[in-house]
Amino acid sequence: MLLRYPAAPENSGLAANAHRDFGYHDDSFGWGTLDTGKKDDSWFYLPALKAAGPLAMERWKTHPIGGEIRPEVWGQIFDEKPSHPKAQDFATCVRETHASWVMDSGMFRDKTDPARIARAATQVRRMGYDFRVVTADITRSGEHGAAVSLEIVNQGVAPFYQDWRIELAAIAADGTVLETWPVKWTLRGLLPSEKPARWETLLERTASHGRACTLGLRVVNPMTGGKRLRFANAAEDRDAKGWLSLGPLP
Questions:
Q1: Average pLDDT value over all residues in the chain
Q2: Which of 107, 106, 100, 88 lies closest to 126, judged by CA?
Q3: Residues 79 and 177 in one domain
Q4: How many Cβ atoms sit within 10 Å of the Cβ of residue 122?
């Protein structure tokens, strides 16, 4: 659940909400988002966020930010040069708000130029999280075990807000998952522009012991049939669908 207007205690007519357990919704995205410095535009999203204080400014780190593109710039916000004089740069709006999702209710009212759709797809990919495993060290530990150490970075503009279960797996050469290991790792709280987080664990191989296997990583969506989280690595789905291949298990 998101709130439309950030508000500090001194905001007239609005209940203070910077301390409340909600994210924010910019309902005029791409039109009334950025700070223009004009007094008449003080109700725009980012000026209102700043006026609501530090807690509001930091809200994106723990609660999602979303919105809807302003009707005046529906569709055209993704053109190379939007025709509306008040259109604001979409990429800048995403970067400064840390938005995870935005609605464009007018994108398909008329037949849409494929080039516009392609630009929209490129821009939308910049929203939210973007996780990449940058290093993966897998070494033998004892007679039947393996020590795993990963570094992961968030290349996006926002964190992942839920604590989905993470698993490792031993994947055979034919793509069969021989065994899995739940790990006490979490994507929650991994912020953009921070140093890579280090994840470590020890595995004890049983069903896969003695077999040539690849170590796989996945994040499990708790909703049946829900879209899965994918990593920004070329090895995603390489050895088994739904798994990121990390390297051979010793």
A1: 95
A2: 100
A3: no
A4: 11
Token readout for 81 is 């040069």
Examine the domain organization and report whether 12 and 115 are in the same domain.
yes
Contacts of 19 (CB under 8 A, 6+ apart): 55
| 14 shares its domain with 113 | yes
In which order are the strands placed within the sheet that holds 2-3? 2-3, 23-29, 65-69
> Own/partner pairs for 222-228, CB < 8 Å, 24+ apart?
222/164, 222/165
Q: Tally Cβ neighbours within 10 Å of residue 69.
A: 27
Same domain (yes/no): 155, 241: yes
Same domain, yes or no: 80 and 165: no
Question: Cα separations (Å) of 35 from 16, 61, 77, 96, 134?
Answer: 21, 20, 18, 10, 35
The CATH number of whichever domain residue 212 belongs to comes to: 2.60.40
Summarised one tens digit per residue, pLDDT across range 21-63 is 999 999 999 999 999 999 999 999 999 999 999 999 999 999 9
Range of the domain at 70: 2-124
